[in-house]
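tool=predict chain=A
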Amino acid sequence: MNLKVRLFACLVLTLTIFTQNAFAADRIIDLVVGYKKVNFAGKERLAMSVNNEIPAPTLKFKQGDHVQINVYNHLDKETAIHWHGIILPWQMDGVLGVSQQGIPPGGVFHYRFTLNQAGTYWYHAHAGLQEQEGLYGAFVIDPRTPSQYHADKDFAVVLSDWSNTPSDQILANLKKSGDYYESLFPLQPSLIKFLHDYQCASKKEKEMLLSDYNMMQQMRMSVYDYSDVAYDAYLLNGHTKFSPWTAPVKVGDIVRLRFVGAAGSTIYRVKIPESKMRVIHVQGNDVKPYEINDFTIAPGETVDVLVKIQKKTPTIIYAESNDTRGSAIGALITDTNKKINISSVQPFKEPLPISRTMMKTMMEGMSHNMPMDMPTESTIVGDEMSRKSVSSKTTHNTQYEKVVAKEKTNDPYKPIDRVIKMELFGYMDRFIWFINGVPEFNAKPIVFEPGKRYRFIFINTSMMSHPMHFHGHWFIFRNGHGEYDPLLHTINIPPGATVAADVDADVSGQWLFHCHLLYHMMSGMARVFQYSTLLDVVKHKNTPQKSIISSHYINRPIVHVDEIRPINIDQVNHPMPHLMKTSFSTNLDVGVNPLRKVQKWGLKGLYGSDYHKLELYTNDAEINNGKIENADIDLFYWHLIYQFWAIKGGLNYTIKPTNTPYLQMGIGIEGMMPYFIGTDLRAYYHSGVLKIDFELSRDTQLTNNFFLRTAVRTILESGLDQVRYIIRPYYRLKPGIDIFVEYEHEKDYGHSSAKSTLTGGVSFGVAS
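tool=predict ok
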């Protein structure tokens, strides 16, 4: 009987493959990547485009098509294109440093693969930050049989973001200071904002606000840490809200809108005022329909909805950044003469402090009995509890709770072979993002054994959401529907959430896994997964595999292809999608004492990689008539040892009015204590004398751009020699440039004297 079943299955599979091939088309597409002048936000800048379009052209195919996409590079740097959500041979995945070498300037690469899937996907550059510069577009595959969801019109809606600052410079600015753009966001943890909210709150809400701010001060995090980059424009199909994208419709039309989250860092909240949206398709897969008033879409995600046109006035599509800084707008119009009344759209309600939702999520996780103490990626082990609870509901409080697959997606009783913990968090001050406490450039690839099922446990201990994308694989998102748990290629993990998803290792090669907030990916929140079969091929222990077959489940081809062109041995031995970056940041204070007319200089420069830097530092150099009268200059090696702390040591050069300049050895530690108390402790030794310089400081944000720094600095040499009390109000003109007034009261205990000085000046920083 088993033999008959097997023969019948083979016959069905053979007929299926024959039928697919009989009706498959050979499609050849040419894409030219080049530069394009744009002006999205009041400033002309050179962007990157595909076929001179931003977004790139929407590519439309039929399931079963044999595709050859020729990508011609007209840039002055390498590029590569990734086909997001498509299951294909790994060498066609388009990731620079992992699956291919870059397409050189003037070169071409031929991406060849068969579309064994249907649905809404997208494509984008995967070389550096080129995606942010304009290289992204929708990728639509129609199913072999017409969709049961009728639509009179069908449009892709690509949501993205834009900055007048080039993306490489944005990353350099964030490396200088993770809160570089903070003052540009409407929502900020300022004292005036807190007092306003507290005054308007109920008694219970007041208690929660106090708890929010107290908790976040202890954790050294912002209660409104929604986004890293304050963008200059938010785009819908390449249009700003001042010149909205439009599409023609008729009253009574059922319109399918294929939303694509193509932003660099922006998570959007989307609504169509006065209209219900019917979700029918999520991340390339049909789902059981459900109605919503609005939804959230993160970078990397796609969501398809149906909307019925019920009026002659424009039907507005409103997408607002979750940090409330801006919005993108489009409209479905029945009459080109009808005005699009943007002002009629009410913005979304202001989001609650992240700490509120984070705590709620964490409490729900505890009530679901989620395992919090899981093994790290370096000690992947089997877990009996997880094996027994494969079909149970193990996630919570996410945007996917209503998502149920339309077709069966998996066998929920297949045993879990191993559990992989993914703890997500970052160090904002130096903008390093970690998985399990290690950035990508310090981590080794994770090895997959083919045919096994792995359970991923995501634990987000940061204050930001992280849309985690796995190339070439499906996450089986465990939300309690067993065989109908949805397939996702990108899971947006909320702050404080613990989320479970299973992955069947049913392909081959090596693949990138990363956060789809681009600057997080570039700063460490990524990993490479390698199949043991590929490693065997490279070591000549096995021959390359070459098979692509259909599985029992829709949109889940099994791709075992190790070589469709010569394997780059160096890329397998040392996959490097994102090299460790060196950054250079200099903060310079220039002030003048109006009474003594003495210039006062302060300098802090950090030059090097994330963990190893050269520090150039002086706190209170004085220049009188062009002559240095007082200076204390450190040239130290600086090393990050923990998320908030660094040690340092090296040489100090001291110039004093009554001494001959001299060199001395020095060591120190600096960092941030709870409640944002900056700490800088330095010790020097010269000619048998030990000197200790210890400073505590705190910057309090009064309004969005007005701050108050208070500090106390103690110098001990022959006992307690000196204490300085410092008050510095300063105003942030723009990111990186402040103007300040500083009052300093200095008490010299050895001389029983005291003096006060007042300095006014400017503070500015540069980063590269």
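Residues 5-20, 368-392 have pLDDT under 50 and may be disordered. The radius of gyration is 29 Å.
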